[in-house]
Amino acid sequence: MSDELVRERRGAVLVARLNRPDARNALTPQLLRGIGAVIVDAETDPEIRAVVLTGTGDRAFCAGMDLRAFAAGEQTSLGDDDAGRAFLRLTEGAVTVPLVGAANGTALAGGFELLLGCDVIIASSEARFGLPEVKRGLFPAGGGTFLGTRVGLSIALEMTLTGEPISAERAYELGLVNAVVPPDDVMETAVAMAERIAANGPLALAAVKELVRLGVSDPARARERLHELRDVVFNSEDAREGAMAFVEKRTPIWHGR
User: Fold this and answer.
1) Pairing of strands 179-181, 120-124
2) Between the CA atoms of 54, 43, 40 and 183, what dihedral angle is there, to the nearest 10 degrees?
3) Selected catalytic residue, list 133, 188, 224, 228
4) Could you say which of 113, 173, 195, 237 is catalytic?
5) For 103-121, how does the pLDDT look when each residue is reduced to its tens digit (9 = 90+)?
């Protein structure tokens, strides 16, 4: 893994930090694949129960695609492998491991779309969020056009048609972020949130993620999956362990099966 993406383990939480501060943590193909590789590892390592995604510095979480590289004709294709497919699943909200976005600074274009792929977002009070692609003759192709599933249609159209950013407080009012905290408290708050999530049953977490997201985008499919997942989760070893731990007044020991 290059220095463009730094990993750190904090117990059951894996922190992945975009590390291109001089370029406002702008996304390159290599960095996209690095993020995808983090997702692959998190989904296959039973000891990782949640991921925190953040950026280096306080200027930006991520400024989106590296436009200098794009203007120079650099290829942006991810490739058809595990890392490439995992990154695409992140933008679709289809990662099985819970993701917490720690917006240490402004998130624009692809950077904002990265956060939209997360399940919970903790934002710096200094951060701003936007989809400015139309200002460059482009459109938000990494999930931003589905913004209307997260906020009202009129707001989604305003943000995508004008390309103008909104403040962290406005994002909180719209329900786009879960908390706004002072810049120095972003990581501590995000990791604490990830730890609270990671303490829960992994099979249940994966089921909840899928069902709640499907409930917004495809209610009929959500109802089908609810019946399928209920049999899997409610008959699992973890479900029995959760019940026994409650009876015995102890912390459950999850095995993900």
Assistant:
1) parallel
2) 0
3) 133
4) 113
5) 999 999 999 999 999 999 9
